[in-house]
Amino acid sequence: MRKKRASSPLSRQHWQMLPSHFFRLVLFALLLFIPIASQAADKRGITEKDLFDFVWIGDPQISPDGSRVAFVRVSVNEKKIGYDTAIWTVSTADKEPPHRLTNGPHDGSPQWSPDGKFLVFMRATEKDGKPEPPQLAMLPMNGGDAWTFTDLPKGAGPPRWSPDGRTIAFTSSSNPEDIAKQQKKKQKEEEAKKTAVAGSPSPAASAKPTASPSKAADSDEERESDVLVVTHAVYREDNEGNADFKRPQHIWTIPAPKTADEKVQPKQLTKGRFDEANPIWSNDGAQIFFPSLHVDEPYYELPTTEIYSMAASGGEPTKLTTIDMGVNGLALSPDGKQFAFVASQNQPVNSYTEPDLWVLDVAKDAKPRNLTTQFDYDVGQGVFGDQAPPRAGGDNPPIWSADSKNILQLFGREGRTNLGRFDAATGVLTEITKGDQAVLSFRATADNSKIVCLISTPTRIGDLFLVDSSAQQQQLTDVNRELWSQLNLTEPEEITYQTFDGKKIQAWVQKPPGFDSHKKYPLILNIHGGPHAAYGWIFEHEFQWMAAKGYVVFYPNPRGSITYGQEFGNVIQYHYPGDDYQDLMRGVDEVINRGYVDDKKLGVTGGSGGGLLTNWVVTHTQRFAAGVAQRDIASWEHWWYTADFTLFQPNWFKAAPFDDPDDFKARSPISYIKNVKTPMMFVLGESDTRTPSGAGGEEMFRALKFLKVPTVMVKFPGESHELSRSGQPWHRVERLEHIVGWFDKWLTGATKPEYDVAQEVTVKAKSEAETKRP
User: Fold this and answer.
1) For the residues of 563-611, what is the DSSP string, one character each?
2) Are 310 and 317 in contact (CB under 8 A)?
3) Model's pTM, two decimal places?
4) Cα(774)–Cα(772) distance, rounded to whole angstroms?
């Protein structure tokens, strides 16, 4: 029996007693509401191709007086096969829109001169449609065009101004042989021009089809062999290609030109067979400090960094100290007495060691001091998303206060990344930013009075905010405003659940726009890689689009994830994959128990470590209707032999595969391939050296074809392990289309002929062709 509804306070009798002007107010309010409701109704769900219109902000730099921020604006190029970068600026005081400073299309790494009158930056031009090595360029801030003032064969790295603004330090891998060849080539070109001007035929025009022996010999001398002779276990890096051991990176300086007519010459400061990076000027400009490591094969040892100093005028470097850690973001204090940096201890040897903030006296054989030993969260890193700037990301070195008593640095805690101020003596943290967000990068004026942060949220790719001492955030940019005004983006729901051994697991549920809790939705479990990484309060295009397509997306941080402390992150050492699988399954159960998921329409996907876990999931349960493993690992043994970095230290395995084959086999999904009944897709980059396809998706695909389990492999030519984050825009979009297309086929019953073998169609077509033959 239906219950009688209680009488409303505004019953018919009450309405009749209201004054007439009340109804006019109600009508006015309704008229105001109609446009708002209409706007909401007009918004659409995000699509995979909206990525083509995304705008990213990279490498923000605040001017010395704090009045402006220069940043790199990144966008998809016209052909949708790459990215354009240009330098823009925005005021920190006025509400004027950002405006463009350089034309691009490959400008980056802006750095203000100490007096704020110039911006030096890196510019790469194009030749035959491909970028040339970047060179240094200068832009006067009082007006005028930028000009390039270096011309090194292998280009110039990120610039660093001297304190007096007269000199710029940078890095380059150009060597004397390269420069000699370049000068010889220029000389020949000049001679050819003079000959042409004099009216004589050029050497090229008068040359015979067959070169003389002497010319052939010259040609052979100038030709550089492309044959790779490998002597190092680590000889390549994903997305970077093969290492060039003939051309180590060294530190150079060059006078800072004030006009385009001023000709300046670069000077190489360091030499030898080892790389140097990140030049740091002393406060008086007399010295340059830099980190290096003079070890030919460092993978045989635990991470180590050597700190050197040398006269800015040149000479032999002096080694100040050796640090038994890999150092990131070395920064000198304003009083010149200490360095600050982020690093993880290398003893004991863990799978994961959370990074800390350290300080080091600028003295011979000084020992570093850990400021954050009592802070059981990650310093200098946090959560990640799929829309960090695909170019011009920049870095986040610690920033000292003017009195050298405090240090600014990021920290990751429980699915969030925020900015903190750490006491340089005690390590005590004062939170500068707070909330459900991810601070991607930060910069500050010398006195720390103005701090600028690049901030992302689940509904914001990344914009610049001015942050004050009371953690108030003033928005400076809204670079995706026009596109965002058309889209119906939704915030995820954060949930926490208890797993099998009592640990608390943090996770998020991205629901479709217009979500109805009384309906049953298909679910996609999305597993992050790393394994020491973390999902969180950050923009995820992939999840927003899957939700817009009608899926509930569940993305948890199982054990092994960062931002939850040392023990939680390292508990998977020598047990990966394993108990983290149980965390994932408990999470799926948690969402199903909420009543809005169809447990017969479950999908699972993940990339890298998430691809490994996807393979592990489908080899250990048949509850999923479809799976997509991306840049995955199938055999730990084969991966150990072929990845672009070594596991010569006992981080993940206690021994090498030939010394402990049983452990490698027990933790490899391919060992359980006969258990797989789930239709599987494998998304692979053909140039991926981080998880080579022969140790992952290729193996799984071939085995499942033999077992006649529905399977398909999608290979992206030229793409590395970074396909989903910085690959060609068209490929990034096609990747999303294939992932969701596979789930559409197996979870919703959509017709997807591109995934069918189509053998019958081929036979039929052949039969028809034979019938038509005379």
Assistant:
1) SS-HHHHHTTTT-TTTHHHHHHHHHHHHHHTTT-EEEEEEEEEEETHHH
2) yes
3) 0.89
4) 6
Q: Contact, 56 vs 390, CB < 8 A?
A: yes
**pLDDT mean over 72-100:** 95
In order, the DSSP letters of 249-269 are: -EEEEEE--SSTT-----EE-
Sorted by sequence, the CB contacts under 8 Å of residue 155 that are 6+ apart come out as: 124, 132, 133, 134, 135, 172, 173, 174
Stronger pLDDT, 258 or 16, i.e. the higher one: 258
Half-sphere exposure of 88 (CA within 13 A, CB side): 24
Which residues, at least 6 apart from 33, have a Cβ–Cβ distance to it below 8 Å? none
The identity of residue 596, as a single letter, is Y
Comparing 129 with 724, the larger pLDDT belongs to 724
| Residues 82 and 727 sit within 8 Å (Cβ to Cβ) | no
Task: Report CA 238 to chain centroid distance, whole Å.
Answer: 13
Lowest pLDDT segment from 102-106, 169-173, 738-742 = 102-106
Q: What is the pLDDT of residues 531-544, one digit of tens each?
A: 999 999 999 999 99
DSSP state of 487: B
Question: How far is residue 266's CA from residue 281's CA, in Å, rounded to a whole number?
Answer: 17
Reading the block at residue 425, the tokens are 């003596």
pLDDT band at 191 (very low <50, low <70, confident <90, very high): confident
Helix (H, G, I), strand (E, B) or coil at 471: coil
In which band, very low, low, confident or very high, does the pLDDT at 201 lie, cut at 50, 70 and 90? low
Say what the pLDDT of residue 38 is: 44
Helix axes 541-548, 729-747, angle to 10 degrees: 40
Nearest to 410 by CA among 200, 255, 626, 563: 563
Note whether 538 and 385 are within 8 A (CB).
Answer: yes
Of 587, 495, 489, residue with least CA distance to 546: 489
CA distances 267 to 105, 152, 170, 178, Å, are: 28, 11, 10, 15
Span between the terminal Cα atoms of the chain, in Å: 79
Tell me how crowded residue 54 is: count the other CB atoms within 10 A of its CB.
19
Q: Is residue 241 within 8 Å of residue 170, measured between CB atoms?
A: no
CA 596, distance to chain mean position in Å, is: 34
Whole-angstrom Cα distance, residue 692 to residue 644? 9
Residue 37: pLDDT band (50, 70, 90) is: very low
For 378-392, b where at least 16 C-beta lie within 10 A, e where not — what string?
bbbbbbbbbbbbbbb
Quote the pLDDT of residue 113.
98
pLDDT of residue 172: 97
Distance of CA 102 to the CA centre of its chain: 24
pLDDT of residue 192: 84
Return the structure tokens found at 596. 């809005």
Q: Which two tokens stand for residue 633?
A: 């690992």
Number of other residues whose CB lies within 10 A of the CB of residue 410: 24
CA distances from 129 to 45, 132, 389, 731 (A): 35, 9, 22, 19
DSSP 316-333: --EEEEEESS--EEEEE-
Q: Which helix (H) or strand (E) holds 645?
A: none
- 506 φ/ψ angles, rounded to the nearest 5 degrees: -95, 140
